[in-house]
Amino acid sequence: MTEIEARLDALLAAPAASLPSFAADGRLYFLCDAGGSAQVWELPAGGGAPRPRSAHRDAVSFVAGSPADGGAVFGRDSAGDERVQLYRLEPEGEPRPLTADPRTIHAWGAFSPDGRRVACAANSRDPAHADPVVIDIATGAATRLREVQGPHELPGWMPDGRSVVLSTAPRTFESELIAVAPDGAATPLTPHQGDWRHMNPRWRKDGEGFWLLTDRGGEFLCVAFMLPGGTPRRLFAPDADVEKLEVSPDQSRLAVVVNEAAWSRLHILDAATGAVLESPEHPPGVITKLSWHPDGGSLAFDLVCPTRPATLWRHRRGEAAAELLFAASAAPEAVVDWQTVSFPTFDSRDLPGFLALPAGEAPARGWPVLVWVHGGPAMQALPNWRPDLQLMLSLGIAVLVPNVRGSTGYGRDYAALDDREKRMDSVRDLAAAHAWLGAQPRFDKQRIGIMGQSYGGWMVLAAVTEQPELWAAGVDYYGIARWKTFFERTGPWRVGHRAAEYGDPVADAELLERLSPLHKAGDIRCPMLVAQGLTDPRVPPHESAQIVQALKNRNVPVESVIFPDEGHGFLKRDNRRTVMLAVAGFLRQHLMG
C-alpha cells in the first residue's frame, strides 16, 4: 500500500453520524456510514451502546423517528437512481418495505400526528409531477390525495391529522404552502404577490396558525408566525438566513439555526415573541438537523466541520454549552482547518470563501492550488468534512473554496447575480479567484487547478473553455457539457425547476447553446479528469461521455472514472476511495510534477 493510499484510508475510515431523529419512546435514530454507506443506527432511550438497524450497500437518505412508538421510517434508493422507497422499522426487528415501486420517487414528508400514517410526494402517476400521497403504516395502502402539476414537497400535516401541507417549488426562490384535504380540496395558506419563499411550516396545536421560515419582504429567511391566508409576523430576523426551525413539544420554544457566513449557530427562541432565550456554545461547524427529545428537556443535533466528520450533540435546557452525544470515531489526525477569506472580483465586490493551507512553510515557488467550486448554483459551499480535500492538502496542494455570485446564504440579491444572461459573470469570478491567488508569493500561479461537481462541473468546463490560459488541470464530476442534451435526458421531474434557473430549453435555446462548454471544447488546453455515475438521473452520463470524446478527438489528455452503481454523487466508500485516489494521482502529475 502506498503512502497516499494509507493516508486516504485513514481519512475514509472516520465515519460520520448525522440526521438525528427522536422516536416517541426517547430512542434516537440517526445515520452512520461506519459500514461503508450511510445506514440507520439507534441510540437506546435508556442508554447503552449504539446499534445498526439497517444493512444495505446503497445509502439510506433519511430516517424519521415515529411520534407514536419506538419505531421509524427510512428511505433509500437503488444505486443512486433517486427512486427512493420507504421502509418501516419497528422498535425491534428487521425493516419492511412500505413502498415497492422502483420507478417512483417517494420524497419523504412526515408522520401523521397519531403516527399511523405517513405522507410523501410521489411521482407514480407521471414522472414530471409529484402528487401528495398518504400511506397507512399497518397495511401499506397508499392514497393519492390530489393530482398536481410539477415538483412539490410535503413538509407536514395539519394538526387535525386529516389534511396535509403541500409546498410548491417552481423555482429556487419561490415556494407556497397549500393545505390538501382528504377529498383533494386545496386551500392556499400563503397567498401573496411576488416571488418569496414560505418554508418549514410548524403548526400550533390548536390549528390557528403556524411558524415558518420566510423571506417575504426581505433579503434573508427569517422566523415568522402567520395565520392561514394572512401575512407573516416576523419574530426573529437576523441579517442572515435562518435555515432550521423546530418547535419544542410544549410549543413554548423554537430551536433555530442561523447561517453566519456559512457557519451554523444554534439559538433557542421564545415561541411567542422570538426573543433569544439561549445560545448554547458548540464547536464551529455546520448543523443539518435538529430533533427535540419527546420530554422537551433537550435537543439533539448533528455538527460537521472541516476537521471531523459529523458527530451528534445534545443541548440540555439551561446549560451554557452543548455536549457531545455520540461520535462514530475519534477525530482524524493531521487534518487542516479552513479559514474564512474574501477576494475582489471584476465589479469591485468582495467574494466570500474558504482557504486551507498545507502544513509547514510554502515552497520556494509557492504551493500549487486547487479551486473547488460548489454545485447548484443556488447552493453554498460550507465548511464540511472533505476527505478528498484533506488528501490534497496532505500532498502539499492548497485549497480555495469560493462562494461565487449566485451562491445562497448571502441574500436574495447575491443569489440572483448569475441568473440567465448573467451566468458567465460567475465564471469571471473564478478568474478573479485565480488572480487573487496568483498575486500572492505563497501560491504558484502557474499551478492552479479547478474542480467541481454537478453544476460545479459545468463551472469547471466553462472555466477551462473561457479561460484556457489560466488553469493547469481540471476535474469535472458529472458536469453539464451541453444544456440542450442535458434537458433532453435529465429526469422529467427536474425540467421545469431547472429551466427556471438556467433558461427555458426552447425559448432560451440560443442562450443555452452559448453557455454550453462542449461547443468550445477545442479551446481546452489543460489535462482533464471526468468522473460519472451511470445511474445519475440529474446529469445523465451522456454529458460526461460527450466532453470525454471531444477531448480525445482533440488529443487533450483526459482520464475517465465511471461507476455503474452510483448516481448523482459517489456515496459508497470503496467507490469514493477509487475516485479520490484517481484525482490525487491526476493532480500530483499535473499540479506537482
TrEMBL record:
User: Ranges for the Peptidase S9 prolyl oligopeptidase catalytic domain?
Assistant: 388-591
Record keywords, A-Z: Acetylation, Hydrolase
Which InterPro entries does UniProt cross-reference here? 6-blade_b-propeller_TolB-like, AB_hydrolase_fold, Pept_S9_AS, Peptidase_S9_cat, Peptidase_S9A, WD40/YVTN_repeat-like_dom_sf
Question: What is known about what this protein does?
Answer: This enzyme catalyzes the hydrolysis of the N-terminal peptide bond of an N-acetylated peptide to generate an N-acetylated amino acid and a peptide with a free N-terminus. It preferentially cleaves off Ac-Ala, Ac-Met and Ac-Ser. Also, involved in the degradation of oxidized and glycated proteins.
| The protein, known as | Acyl-peptide hydrolase
